[in-house]
Amino acid sequence: MLHALAEFAQAHFPGMESGFGPVTLKWQINLPRDTSGVWTIEPLGEVGLLHPTAPEYPANLMQSGGRSHFLIDELRTSIMLLDKKDEKQKYESKNKFFIDLLRAASASHPDVSVLASWLTMESAMNDIRQWLLARGAGSADRAVFRVDGADLSRVDECRQWWRTYRTKLVPETPKNRHMVCLLSGQDVTPAKTHEKVSGLKRFGGRGQDIVVGYDKPAFTSYGLDQNENAAMSEHMAKCYVQGLNYLVQKQRKDIGNGAVVYWFKESLPSEDDPFSMLYGMEAEEQKNVSALAQARKLLDAIRIGARAKTGGNHYYGMTISGASGRVMGRDRMEGQFAQLVTNVEAWFADLSIVHRDGRGFAPDPKFLAVGGSLVRKLKDLPPSTSAVLWRTAIAKLPVPQPLMVQALDRFRSAIVKDETFNHARIGLIKAYFTRKSKEGKQHMKQHLNPDHPDPAYHCGRLLAILARLQHAALGDVGAGVVQRFYSATSTAPGLTLGRLVSNARNHLGKLEGGLTYWYEQQIADVMIRFGDNIPRTLDLEGQGLFALGYYQQLASLRAGKKDGKDTNPNGDQS
Question: Within this chain, do residues 475 and 495 fall inside the same structural domain, yes or no?
Answer without folding.
Answer: yes
